[in-house]
Structure formats: structure tokens, C-alpha cells
Amino acid sequence: MKTIIEPFRIKSVEPIRMTTRERREELLAAAGYNVFRLRAEDVLIDLLTDSGTAAMSVEQWAAMMRGDESYAGSASWYRFERAVRDIFGFRHILPTHQGRAAERLLFTALCRPGHVVPNNTHFDTTRANIEATGAEAVDLVIPEGWVPSAQHPFKGNMDVARLRALIGERGREAIPLCMITVTNNSGGGQPVSLANIREVSLLCRQHGIPFYVDACRFAENAWFIREREAGQSGRTPLAIARDMFALADGCTMSAKKDGMANIGGFLATNDDRLARVETDQLILTEGFPTYGGMAGRDLEAIAVGLFEALDEDYLCYRITSTRYLGEHIARAGVSILQPPGGHAIYIDATAFFPQIPALELPGQALVAELYREAGIRSVEIGTLMFGKRDATGREQPAAMELVRLAIPRRAYTQSHVDYVVEAVAQVFERRESVRGFRIVEQAPSLRHFTARLEPKPTA
Ligand SMILES: Cc1ncc(COP(=O)(O)O)c(C=O)c1O
């Protein structure tokens, strides 16, 4: 059969409130043309993020009813620990309220000023947590990973030659750990091959550098390995995931992605001494080591969700439906970051609106148009998010102007996806009439969350 179907049926529905174009126009203006300021109930299709937005299964809800809320040694903790160890295999598992808490524990234990931490591409919280320790975060993805139109089956791979050169230049002592992010979210949700993980692991071992995986989308990465890597077809995503983690010394995980949960995460390591230091810090800021920042019921939802994320029918539907969205948008003539990634489609806003200069925020113009046209919420990943002032105080644009359509897990159906395709195509048809924006109010950091904008007047 060619038709992709959702491998589930719907038992509990959450109504979407329809709005008119006129009403959305008013809401957009009241929100200062910043969709982070909208109420979720005024959004028809919410593609702001795939993090913490999954629909849980009947098995997860059932498991939550079993949640043991004992402060110490709850049965839920032991079920969580068993599930995590079964897949990830590490000796020590520290529960945390979400991924960035695991990052903070890991980096504060290992990083100091003068240190450098390589990754294929650091996610923004990863980079921020490294930089908060005074260390430097460097991105070493392969050259294709920097070019939106470049095709490569594993565009998230680490550039091993550059990693080797970095170790040669800075020396092992300056590199407290090396990371690899699967899939590479900041590079478009692109996968990393098992061969590349093996090469990086080997190089790190030769130099005695601990090697960690940022595991948020490990199941989607395992699926891409099975589909694209020689010798891997027919293997189960679980077997591939185990191989990935057997090559590492530990991992950080946000269970809000491939944990299929609405909150939660963990840090894992094979290093006994480090685990002791991290556990002391965990108690200080997250909670007792058998719950971290989570309720017993959250631990239960994750213990079930991790295995559901590895289900072959689910992964086939997940990756195929993301690709479907990307291919149909591209077929309408819109440039997207190629090839479609696992959890999101990224539209090239510079190509979409060539008449809007980067400093007039073409990505944000597209975000606003998608909401105005069809009530779709997306996110700008461009100059509004990453623009910086230079030494003279002049605004410098970001490297790329992208708009991300992130797909919540199991939450939307094929007809929702078709609706998004239609909306993007309609905005594309009238693209020449769209204007850019001017920022009228902004915070000194992370301005995209709260900024207020106004449309540039017509010339
Ligand atoms: C690759 C990656 N690492 C880390 C994180 C941080 O996880 P959390 O949002 O749970 O703190 C995210 C979240 O989007 C991510 O995509």
C-alpha cells in the first residue's frame, strides 16, 4: 500500500478552535507579530516544537495510574531505570526534569574556562550550558551540514578530520568531553551514521576523551541508520540504538522527544567517580536520585514511551509523514532544507521572500503569514533568534533565515499535514506582496521569545 496511515486510532480528542482570518489578523497584531505571545487555543495547527507535545498512548496513561510517588526508592523509579538501562546500557542513570538539567549537571562537573567541547552541532541549551561554565562550544558537522540544499544520507555526521585537528591544536587536556547529537536538531534533524559514531568513539578513546551522545531523537536516528546505512537494513531500531550507545561513555536525554513524554529526561554515565559528583549536584537542584525532578507518574510514562518510540510501525509512519510534508512543500516550488529530517521541515525564508532583506526578518514574515493564512504556528530560526550586534552596535544577520515546522509526535493526522501543505503553497503564491518587520521592543538576550514587532510600511 502506498497510502501512509497513522498506526493508531484516536480514543480521546482535543478540539481545535477554528478562527477566521480577520480574528487571526487582530490576534497577530495584539501579539506584536510574535507567535510565542499567542494563546495556544488561538492556534489551529501548532508546529512550534516537537518537544513535550506528543500524544501519549493508552499504555502510557495506564502506566501513569501505577505511578508510585514515594520520595525514595519508588517502584516507578525501578521500572524507569530498568527501561533506560535496557536500551541505553549505561551503569549510572540520573533522572532530571528535562534535557537541559542533565546538560547542566554534566557540564558543571566537567567543564572549566579554557576548555572546548566539540559536537556535530550544539543545540542552543547545550551551547548555553557549556558557555555558562566558561568553556567554549564548537560545531564540527561535515561541510554538507552547513549547506541547506546539499544532499547527504547522514548530513548530521561529525567531521572527523576537523575533530582530529582540534584535538591536535588544543590538546586532550583542554577537551573534557566530546558530544554527538542524534539527530542533529540545529542542523535540520539530520541523522548521524553508526559508522560515524564508531569513528568518533574510537578517536575519543585513543585520546582518553569521554564521549557522550545527546540522545533526544535516538529512535528517529536509529530508523535512518536502518534505512540508509549499508549492512543495517532489517535490524531492529532497538538493536541499532543499543549499538549506538555501546560506543559512548554516557548520554544526556530529553524524554520530551523520543521518550514520548510531556516532561522528563536523564543523564547517564559509566564513570563511577563522575556519577558521585553529579548525584550530589542532582540532590541539590533536581531532587532525590530516584525521582530527579519528576513525579513517579512521569517516570512511568517515559519507561513505556521509550519503547513505543522504537516501534517499527511508529517510526516508519513518523519518518514517512515528515518526508511527505517536506516533499509536498518542495513540489509547490518552496526551497526547504534537504533532505527532510526526522522531526521537522525547515523552509528557506531567504529563497521564499527574496525581496525582504535579512535585517527585515523574512523568516518572521513567513511565520506571521502562515498564522494569518491558516492559523499555523511555526518558529523563525534566523535573525530574530540569532541576530547579533557587532562592536559598533550594528545588527548583524544570522547565517541562515529558516522557518521550522516541527511535528508533534502522534498528535496530528494526514489531513492536518495536507492542510499545512496547502497553506504554505497559498502563501507562496502571493509571496511578492509580503513585507518584512521592524523590532519595536526586545529583551537583551533570547529576544525572540518576547520581542514585539511591526510590519515595515509599504514603500
Ligand atoms: C538536541 C537537543 N538537545 C537538548 C535539548 C534540551 O532539552 P529540554 O528542552 O528537555 O531541556 C533539546 C530540546 O529541544 C534538543 O533538541
Characterise this structure.
- With 459 residues, the protein is α/β, with parallel strands linked by helices.
- The protein contains 16 helices and 16 strands.
- It has helices spanning 21-30, 58-65, 75-88, 99-110, 124-131, 160-170, 194-207, 218-228, 237-246, 272-285, 296-309, 312-331, 349-352, 362-374, 383-386, 414-429, and strands at 45-46, 92-96, 116-119, 136-139, 178-181, 211-214, 250-254, 265-269, 344-348, 376-377, 379-381, 388-389, 395-396, 402-406, 437-441, 452-455.
- Strands 2-8-7-6-5 form a 5-stranded mixed β-sheet, with helices on both faces. The chain has a 3-stranded antiparallel β-sheet with strand order 9-14-11. Strands 1-10 form a two-stranded parallel sheet.
- α1 (21-30) runs antiparallel to α14.
- The structure holds pyridoxal-5'-phosphate.
Mean of pLDDT: 96
The shape is: globular
Number of strands: 16
Largest sheet: 5 strands, mixed
Query: Can you count the helices?
Result: 16
The unique ligands bound to this protein are: pyridoxal-5'-phosphate
Give the strand content: 5-15%
Distance between the ends: 53 Å
What strand line-up does the widest sheet have? 2-8-7-6-5
Helix content: 25-40%
Helix vs. strand class: alpha/beta
Radius of gyration: 22 Å
Unreliable stretches (pLDDT < 50, length at least 5) are: none
